[in-house]
Design a protein that fits this description.
With 260 residues, the chain is α/β, with parallel strands linked by helices. The chain is built from five helices and twelve strands.
Length: 260
């Protein structure tokens, strides 16, 4: 029986080269076809559907911000650039942009929900429900409905948490909390609707709350001793270990000078 003659090495190399060339040709053809399809007018973006929170942004303003970024077709447009354009608009916290075959986009917007003014009096920044600081037109918020909070950069969540922690105890005794501030050194200071200012000292939420609760429990007895009520409170300093200092409207510890 005659054994088959092995294929020569040069023939095998030629076959491999031919297969590689064929594969490369097919790949280039697919790429070219894909690019040709992607450039067809059928896939030009014909419309954008916007859903979600749109209370503070109208169609003309969205169009002016976004349309310059809508370049290319359904397959080639830059979704991150479009998302960034939406999120650059006032009040927009987050935008989710999706393709809607064959030639549309679907956008879901989430606006900031303001819970407080942020920074010094007159500052136009606000704080949202996530503790994030954002810039917007404060004239679009009903005046005097939000507290004013302040603190070092990046600590918005902690300041908002402290406001929520102190709100109920103060309301329980008829005090309306309108301001919370965290200093660069970590000291807490609050302001009341009556104009009173309270220094609460440093510490975490539990320590500050305990100090405040102790003050509120003893304050009525102290004010009654001087014939006053808690509404006459002007200032209190709770930074002492086992005591506090306060100032009441119409009460002084200075003796009147004797007449000459």
């Amino acid at each position: 029986m005659t054994e088959p003659t092995p294929m020569a090495m040069d023939i095998r190399l030629m076959n491999m080269a031919a297969a590689l060339l064929l594969g490369a040709f097919v790949l280039l053809a697919l790429v070219s076809a894909t690019r040709w399809v992607a450039r067809q007018a059928t896939f030009d973006i014909q419309g954008i559907s916007v859903r979600g929170d749109v209370a503070h942004n109208n169609i003309p303003s969205m169009r002016a911000n976004v349309l310059p970024q809508v370049r290319g077709t359904f397959f080639t447009l830059d979704l991150p650039a479009i998302r960034k354009a939406y999120e650059s608009m006032p009040w927009v916290r987050q935008a989710v942009v999706r393709r809607d075959f064959p030639n549309r986009l679907r956008v879901e917007l989430q606006e900031h929900q303001p819970v407080a003014y942020w920074g010094a009096e007159g500052d136009s920044r606000m704080l949202n429900s996530y503790g994030e600081v954002f810039d917007a037109n404060i004239d679009e918020v009903e005046p005097n409905t939000l507290p004013r909070l302040a603190g070092p950069a990046g600590l918005g969540p902690q300041v908002w948490d402290m406001y929520q922690t102190l709100l109920a105890p103060l309301n329980r005794v008829g005090m309306e909390l309108v301001q919370v501030e965290l200093s660069a050194r970590g000291n807490w200071r609050i302001g009341l609707e009556s104009g009173a200012r309270l220094e609460l000292g440093s510490g975490d939420r539990a320590a500050v709350l305990q100090r405040t609760e102790r003050f509120l429990q003893t304050l009525p007895a102290v004010t009654q001793r001087y014939g006053r009520n808690t509404g006459t409170l002007e200032y209190a300093d709770l930074r002492y270990e086992q005591a506090y200092a306060l100032r009441l409207r119409g009460v002084t510890t200075l003796a009147l000078a004797a007449p000459k």
